[in-house]
Input
Amino acid sequence: MAIDGWTIGIIGGSGLYALDEIEDAIWHDVETPWGRPSDRILEGRIGATRLLFLPRHGKGHAIPPTEINARANIDALKRLGATDILAISSVGSLREELPPGRFTVVDQFIDRTMHRPATFFGTGLVAHVSLADPVCPRLSAFAAAAIEAAGGEVSTGATYLAMEGPQFSTRAESVAYRQWGADVIGMTAMPEARLAREAELPYALVGMVTDYDCWREEEAGVVATDVVAQMHSNAVTARRLVSAFAKALPAERTPSPIDTTLDHAILTAPAARDGAMARKLDAILRRFTASPAT
Output
């Protein structure tokens, strides 16, 4: 059965704190069972597409990577009716062919984060989602086309190394990540992508390259002030790509296999499920608990 319309959750990364062209704007303060999201969420539309915009680090970039409440962010977007998520993140490059200023659409992750809750599920309600292919190919294709429409240079098929931070890599780490096959490096896309899959939200990630990390031995290491300057330049294109993305989506949103991920992931028998955990997962499990009339 077709799902009418799109509601795209836009998670804006470093440098992307606002959207151009948004109409009928409404701000939402959202409380979730996991705490508060990074900031208020802006609801509006560009063309016929409904958008929910959330700055990942909060306005003014007040939240460091490890302290981002990714569970609250994803839950809040799901709670407000998001059907899909387009995430935009600043990244460092691990490849010569991905220079600063280039945009890349990610299709794989290597997760090196260590101190962040990475699942909605737990004791009393266990689920194991498939993450072999962690992004939505349909959304990713729309994103790549939107970058080109916005005048950006785009590469596709990148592997993103998610590091804990907040420090940048050592040179030895940067060289090792290249040997592992990583193409770009960042601090925020995990566990965000994992949680989006648990929430049955198709997810695409656009990486905005700001620097060459520190694997080039003849160059100085990464300096935050240099990154910020490139971030501001990238953000101009990022705002244009969001507009192009929203305007190019087809009027009808046909179902995605990701919409029903949990059908094959929840292992806890109904009689053994913890009621308090199920209530905490009310937004994530809404498809299972909604009455036929809703």
In short: The chain has one domain: 3-283. The chain has seven helices and eleven strands.
